[in-house]
Design goal:
Elements: H1 16-19, E1 61-64, E2 67-71, H2 73-80, H3 90-100, H4 106-125, H5 130-150, H6 158-172, H7 179-209, E3 219-220, H8 231-234, H9 238-253, H10 258-266, H11 284-305, H12 310-330, H13 333-343, H14 346-349, H15 352-355, H16 361-369, H17 373-391, H18 396-399, H19 405-418, E4 428-429, H20 430-447, H21 457-465, E5 468-469, H22 471-481, H23 487-503
Parallel strand pairs: 3-5
Antiparallel strand pairs: 1-2, 2-4
């Protein structure tokens, strides 16, 4: 059976981005891995063990057991820039570039990096050893390459592009650089321009698809016509539908980038009272992904409530239970949660005669996995299992991990909330940003998985374009299928009918 009435008056998952602005917060997950070195995993940010012994003159950096845990912002910036004898660890590059936007605009960081690069070159120009100068140039270009690949949208602003050109000029102005360095600069520039063009096109696409602020997806004011297709006429195989949902999930989540996730944090309170670049960029991809979850939940509710015959309605409920179970097996937890959310909406949950005919054993298992108690402990255990399977995977299918996006956003937000950006001595609390970076890195790895399932355009078209009942229409359909059973429902039904008569 669905969850108790107290939990069915609203979707299980409210709009994730809206929820972050509310004061009431659920139990915070304890990130013990932030303090436990053993939680670092192969191929992921490793809490900053330095390669090459680090750079000299970094006395403002504090290390613990060989790991960077804090430092002044200036020292951290210097630690980012290579020297002849030093190149920063790639995990440090990603973590610092990701977290630095909390403290400084990317174009300002680029300007400071350019100054440090210029100082490095000036120190070497007096040295007759041209090889050292060429080595430094190659390392600086490599750093810029990693930056533009990991965070290409830091370069959307003209200021940032101007700073990038200035650093390139600094690298190449003093002498004839090797053809390898020149080729690397050309390739880097071309790839950056392609990434920016793709981002611009994507933003235009999301802008065209955006619904009014209070309208999530194609919502009708009344019920769709009875002749409209239903989900079972389009797809009657739960596994196939779960695979198509996974296609949609991966396509949409693929457009989310690390800086988009940091923007959620940067919009909130900051000890530095500093606004990051993200405040000037609309997060279309985040809005679209959040909107997709809510549309899927409403679509599930619509498909159930629009069926007049109880036997057919029962079949639809059982079908979606099977779809949710297949999503769980695939590792698509976001679609699974959306389906459960849709079936726990009040208009569906109140259909007691329908639920009495449903074989609920499988649904009970799904609810157990998504039980919100102990901060979704059961879900987190399942997610950990899917993550381990992904790490050991030999096929794309085994690599799929699509977490519940709302919960992932909450986790990184609370990690940001409960740990300060700066320590009492004013240094950056880099231990916090290592863990934040690790979790975002995990998420980004999951988004890069190529969907192994064959795409069915007919099914996807239905999922993305089928008319969805408004909340009012869901209740009307629900009461028409199974009449009100108590005074509260009778009052609600009476109000709805009065509203409809007034409109007529």
């Amino acid at each position: 059976m669905p969850w108790e009435e107290g939990l069915t008056g609203a979707p299980l998952m409210p709009h994730s981005l809206l929820l972050l602005s509310q004061e009431a917060m659920p139990q915070t997950f304890v990130f013990s891995s932030m303090l436990a070195p053993s939680c670092s995993r192969q191929g992921q940010p490793s809490m900053g063990e330095c390669s090459g012994g680090g750079r000299s003159g970094s006395g403002d950096l504090v290390f613990q057991d060989g790991r960077l845990i804090s430092g002044s912002l200036e020292a951290l910036m210097e630690h980012l820039v290579p020297t002849v004898d030093y190149y920063p660890d790639r995990t440090y590059i990603f973590t610092f570039l990701l977290s630095s936007r909390v403290f400084i605009h990317p174009h300002d960081l680029l300007a400071r990096v350019g100054q440090i690069c210029l100082q490095q070159r000036q120190q070497l120009e007096a040295d007759p050893d041209q090889a050292k100068l060429s080595s430094l140039s190659a390392k600086i270009v490599q750093l810029l390459k990693e930056w533009t690949e990991a965070f290409p949208y830091d370069f959307q602003e003209e200021k940032a592009m101007a700073e990038l050109k200035a650093i390139i000029h600094c690298v190449t102005q003093c002498e004839e650089e090797s053809s390898t360095v020149k080729k690397a600069i050309t390739q880097m520039t071309q790839n950056l321009l392609l990434s920016l063009a793709a981002r611009s096109q994507l933003q235009e696409f999301w802008e065209k698809l955006r619904s009014p602020p209070m309208d999530k997806g194609p919502v009708l004011k009344a019920k769709p016509p009875a002749t409209q297709k239903d989900i079972l006429s389009v797809c009657c195989d739960p596994l196939v539908l779960a695979q198509q949902l996974t296609h949609i999930e991966l396509e949409r989540v693929h457009s989310i980038h690390p800086e988009d996730l940091m923007q959620i944090l940067s919009h909130r309170d900051s000890l530095d009272n500093c606004r990051c670049r993200g405040d000037q960029t609309k997060t279309y991809s985040l809005e679209a992904y959040d909107n997709w979850f809510n549309c899927l939940s409403m679509l599930v509710a619509t498909e159930v409530c629009r069926i007049v015959k109880k036997k057919q309605r029962t079949r639809v409920v059982e079908f979606f239970i099977d779809v949710a179970r297949e999503c769980f097996n695939i590792g698509n937890f976001n679609s699974m949660m959306a389906i459960i959310s849709g079936m726990n909406l009040s208009p569906v949950a109140r259909l007691k005669k329908t639920w009495s005919k449903v074989k609920t054993a499988k649904f009970d298992v799904l609810e157990h996995h998504m039980d919100p108690s102990s901060n979704f402990c059961n879900y987190r255990t399942a997610l950990q299992g899917a993550t381990q399977r992904s790490q050991m995977a030999h096929s794309s299918r085994e690599k799929i991990v699509i977490p519940v996006f709302n919960l992932f956003v909450k986790d990184i937000y609370f990690l940001h909330k409960i740990h300060t950006n700066r320590l009492p001595n004013g240094q950056v609390n880099f231990k916090k940003f290592w863990e934040l970076s690790r979790q975002i890195h995990d998420f980004m790895m999951w988004t890069q998985v190529e969907c192994p399932f064959e795409k069915d355009k007919k099914i996807q078209s239905y999922l993305l374009t089928a008319p969805i009942y408004s909340e009012e229409a869901l209740f009307i359909a629900s009461f028409e299928s199974e009449g009100p059973e108590n005074h509260m429902e009778k009052d609600s039904w009476k109000t709805l009918r009065t509203t409809l008569l007034n409109r007529a």
